[in-house]
Design brief:
single chain, about 375 residues, alpha/beta, Glucose Oxidase, domain 1, Rossmann fold, 2 domains, 10-stranded mixed β-sheet, 7-stranded mixed β-barrel, 10 helices
Length: about 375
């Protein structure tokens, strides 16, 4: 069975269909990670997107239930170049095609992913359509051009949980010396605002001895206060941050009341709650090898990233924010603090999964600061 991928610029690609028969539209992006396709496909931040993997061979180690970053995948489709005939890994319980079929995700193999990537790099992220049932090129291009744009779209409601709940699962890997990190000296309760949060963020908090409660994006400031947390973590999620108005108001109502740490979408939502602005990047940052300058520490960290929007630096500085991290590829903001409001945020994913662990230390620093009643400031990053 064949499938076709059409882009709004008129490009059409034909390949082998994967997953169920159907048609999906979405923003077409590319991800440069060399491993970790399962973690990418189960990251809720990809809701509404068709993900093109630039690494040419996908599916060689199959899929297993232990490495999911959410309870299910939310992305619209998968584009890849070469699919091996069978997976080879003792942990695999499904092949990649079986995984896509089970979760209703459309895929296409045999595509020149370099050509797709070059179009996105040149023109910016493009709306597209992936179909294994419509084969008229003109019809496909027409539908791609009429697909919903990412800008202005609130996708958080599609991935956020319906009700709050505890999280107790720690990281499955021990430290190098065989011991887990020490628990904080006193009781520490962190509420995680779940806009589509990756499981590895919650695992890191639990690993550092926190009692973790994740709450839906619809939680109000009063709902969060009622849980009596020591700190708040605003997590990642999909879509345009400026469209998530209810969550922005919740965060605005909590500024200055307790230490807050933001990651990815949470980084953007906190900036909007402060009164700063966000903007859409040309083709976003999607990969596991992006260099970031950590200014407080005076070093470069290689990071895992997945976002299509960024915070405008001048508007952030006008409301008291101080930039701490800068993307070395395009100069966009990757982190900031607000000293007066005990707030720190990172645009990239310090928990990785997939990707390097250069910045995973920030979870321990955040938990230690919260447990000790210290300010959350640049010392979290230095």
């Amino acid at each position: 069975m064949i499938a076709k991928l059409a882009l709004e610029d008129g490009s059409v690609f034909t390949g082998r269909a994967l997953g169920p028969r159907g048609t999906r539209t979405g923003e077409v992006v590319f991800n440069t990670a060399m491993t970790g396709y399962q973690e990418v496909f189960t990251d809720p931040s990809y809701c509404g997107q068709i993900v093109t993997m630039t690494f040419p061979l996908l599916g060689n180690y199959g899929v297993n239930p232990d490495d999911f970053e959410s309870t299910q995948p939310y992305l619209s489709g998968v584009v890849l170049k070469e699919l091996p005939p069978r997976p080879s890994n003792f942990r695999a319980t499904l092949s990649l095609p079986e995984f896509l079929e089970k979760h209703g995700i459309l895929g296409i193999a045999g595509v020149d992913t370099r050509a797709v990537t070059r179009r996105i790099r040149t023109q910016g992220a493009l709306r597209g359509i992936l179909s294994s049932e419509i084969f008229d090129d003109l019809e496909l291009v027409h539908r791609a051009r009429n697909a919903q744009p990412m800008a202005g779209t609130n996708l958080v409601a599609a991935v956020s949980p319906a009700r709050p709940g505890p999280w107790t699962e720690p990281l499955w890997k021990p430290d190098v010396d065989g011991r887990g990190p020490a628990a904080p000296s006193g009781p520490c309760h962190i509420v995680a605002l779940d806009c589509g949060i990756k499981h590895n963020i919650l695992r890191h908090l639990a690993e550092h001895g926190c009692r973790v409660t994740h709450v839906p994006s619809t939680a109000t400031a009063a709902d969060i206060r009622a849980l009596r947390p020591n700190g708040l973590l605003a997590g990642n999620g999909p879509g345009d941050p400026a469209a998530v108005t209810g969550t922005i108001e919740t965060l605005r109502g909590l500024l200055g009341e307790l230490p807050i740490f933001g990651i990815c979408l949470g980084h953007q939502l906190l900036a909007l709650a402060l009164g700063a602005k966000t903007y859409k990047l040309p083709f976003g940052h999607h990969g596991a090898n992006l260099p970031v300058e950590n200014r407080p520490a005076g070093r470069i960290e290689i990071t895992s990233q997945n976002h299509g929007f960024a915070v405008d630096v001048p508007s952030l500085e006008r409301v008291g924010g101080t930039p701490t991290h800068v993307n070395l590829n395009d100069g966009s903001l990757e982190g900031y603090i607000h000293r007066d409001l005990r707030l720190a945020a990172l645009q990239f994913h310090p928990e990785a999964s997939p990707g390097p662990h250069d910045a995973s230390y920030v979870f321990g620093r955040f938990v230690q600061a919260v447990a000790a009643g210290r300010a959350v400031d640049e010392s979290v990053f230095a």
